[in-house]
Amino acid sequence: MVALTSDRNTPRRTGDISSGPVAASQLIFAGALVARNSAGYLVKGSTATGLTGVGRAEERVDNSAGAAGADTLRYRAGTHLFANSASTDLITIADIGKVCWIVDDQTVAKTSATNTRSKAGIVEDVDATGVWVRFDEALARVAS
Predict the structure, then answer these.
(1) Where are the domains of the chain?
(2) Non-local CB neighbours of 113 within 8 Å, separated by 6+ positions
(3) Fewest CB atoms less than 10 Å from the CB: which of 72, 73, 94, 106?
């Protein structure tokens, strides 16, 4: 392409709901923590490496018998409440602003458990009900 020589109506996406193809063998429940795997497909949160948290599932999608990409999931970035881990992996207010790690599709933890977990997002707040996690895929990829 060449540089513009006149005005251009550049398309944009608005809102915080996105969608993407679901990995094979996945049953993702509405409200679940959702991550993107290294192949670019969406998966439910789990203890695994190579994932990056992207947000909360807006719907239930059952691709348990389908091939990768056979189904699409709507998910929402932003800040969502998930369960806190326990014991030495319990997230506290001292962890606000730090990365938290995926334990499963509803739980986050303070550590990577010796590099066996993937980044969920950034801790926004912690209260008696759980951990408020900010999901921003680009931010999670570069955060340490």
Answers:
(1) 18-76, 78-142
(2) 47, 89, 101
(3) 94
Question: How much is the pTM?
Answer: 0.91
Task: Give which of 134, 140, 137, 112 is closest to 40, Cα–Cα.
Answer: 137
Residue 67 per-residue DSSP state = P
Q: What are the structure tokens assigned to 144, written together?
A: 């340490």
Q: How many residues does the chain have?
A: 144
DSSP 35-51: EE-TTS-EEE--S-SS-
Give per-residue pLDDT as tens, 81-120: 999 999 999 999 999 999 999 999 999 999 999 999 999 9
Q: Which residues neighbour 80 within 8 Å (Cβ) at sequence distance 6 or greater? A: 33, 55, 56, 132, 133, 135
Torsion of CA 91, 45, 98, 87, to 10 degrees: 20
